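Chapter summary example.
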Amino acid sequence: MRKTEEMIYRCPLFAGIEKQQFPAMLESLDSQLKNYRSCQIVLKEGRPVYRMGILLEGSLTISDVSFWGTLTPIEEIQPGMIFAEDLAQTRGAIADERIEAVTASIVLWVGLSEILKLDGSQPWHTIVIRNLMNQFARRSLLLQQRQKILVQRSTPAKIRCFLSRQFFHNSSPSFDIPYTRAEMAEYLAVDRSALSTEIARLARDGWFSSDHNHFELKEKGPGQK
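The structure predicted for these 225 residues follows.
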């Protein structure tokens, strides 16, 4: 339990709040701590949502779900990130996405409507609201980055754009991506076999080297000086 408490203390949403304020704060925010097994569904489409989630440990995938049950990965959630905040804002809204644990995960569920009702009467009120706005901005940026990838007109262009985002995220031209080939194909909205073909071709042409989910970008691609 001590380890879990430390993870909650380190959560970006609560940065700057004194430890002695946490018990009253978590009670005020209608918080609930839950553990999930690998591959367990954290939030199923069609279910009402009353709280937003904060991932404390593990990894989650948010996927769009079609009427026929096809899953399309939208976003990977890493520790410290919030999720389902758009649904929780209108308490009881119905989820149209599926959230699944990639690995064993710990989630702290908190009431977003309770946060938005904070009146500043406690010293932690302003801090939580400010941190929440920063989290909203970060999530919006991540979604905008994916949109930039999806508007690319060809599969090679999508791959290069995606890998460029990974380079900036990792601050290194050598990195591991958080997707299998099938998941990467879904994320880029391209055919899996076409993705593998284009990755092999781009590697041969000198854009990067790859080994499974590890990539190393080269400084000069074809036609670059």
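To summarize the output: The chain has two domains: 2-148, 152-217.
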